[in-house]
Task: structure prediction
Amino acid sequence: EPTAFDSEFKYWTTSGYTDSKGQFEFENLIPGKYILYSSTYKRNHIPGYYESDDETLTRSWLDATRIEVEETGSFGDFELRLAPLKPIASNKGLSGKVGRLKGVSPGSSEIINPLNGVQVFVTNSEDKVINYNFSEKDGEYEVPNLENGELNIYFDKVGFKMAHEQVTITDNNKNVNLDVE
Result:
């Protein structure tokens, strides 16, 4: 990957699944630097990126440990530990649209291009993940089942700087709308 936030990022991705023993393998990788991302379909664990100095995965691709693949072949064994997600049942939620500015100066609200696949994490004041979701093709997202209080919202997508916002959810303010560039 080039220098951070360079407009000339070149990405190549591959994906795979674990077997019945939880093991995975990637073959025929192009030489370069890689980050490992893991998630489940059941949404019962918090997804994230591999970080060598952490017991669980990190939420931001910028904090992920880069794995150098110098030539085709094995590059090591990695253990990815997903933290359990204990969702709460509530009628409170967050929704909105996430996009990027195109051809305008920062701070302008003109010409927002929707972003697909942005991870939207909601944490409480102790930075514990309450729930998460991903933005759709039109940039819209929805994160249900939230608790009352000051909540931190993190928007993360590979190749983009993470955005952070705060909202307050109360019994009178059950469904918050938050658009982010």
Remarks:
- The CA atoms of residues 54 and 81 lie 9 Å apart.
- The chain has no helices and 13 strands.
- The longest strand covers residues 149-156.
